[in-house]
Amino acid sequence: MQEQQVLNQAPLHQAPLQQAPLVWGEIAVEDMARAKAFYQTQFGVRFRDEQMFGMEMAILETEAPQAASIALVKHDMMRLSGAGSILYLHLSDHLAPLVERLEQNDVEIALPAMAIKEGECGYSCVIVDSEGNRVGLWAPSLKG
Description:
Blueprint: H1 2-8, E1 24-28, H2 32-43, E2 47-52, E3 55-60, E4 69-74, E5 88-89, H3 95-104, E6 108-115, E7 123-128, E8 134-139
Parallel strand pairs: 1-4, 5-8
Antiparallel strand pairs: 2-3, 3-4, 6-7, 7-8
């Protein structure tokens, strides 16, 4: 019955978004020190540690304070996931050199680098982080 009510509702005016839809992402961790070390070592990023609502968080620092970001989060409600939704991170402008370095560092590549629409929409791959999460990587070009 509820499904029928939803189908009968008038659709909202559909238009392209004025902003990027992703504003925040959280990656579950079991061992915060290990997870931070993985991301800092593999991607050269920096985190800001915070406690919020009983959650231990490491927030990825960005130069623009209002930019979308992610946090590593340790909390009972967070579950590691090797399946399900994947966040794609833009951590390099060239994907191939990054993937090569990750392979040299024995990081599991779950899905190798590939072109999206023959490279028109960039390149992506999926890795498995130190906690067993699948994480996507995206870059505008394959090689520099």
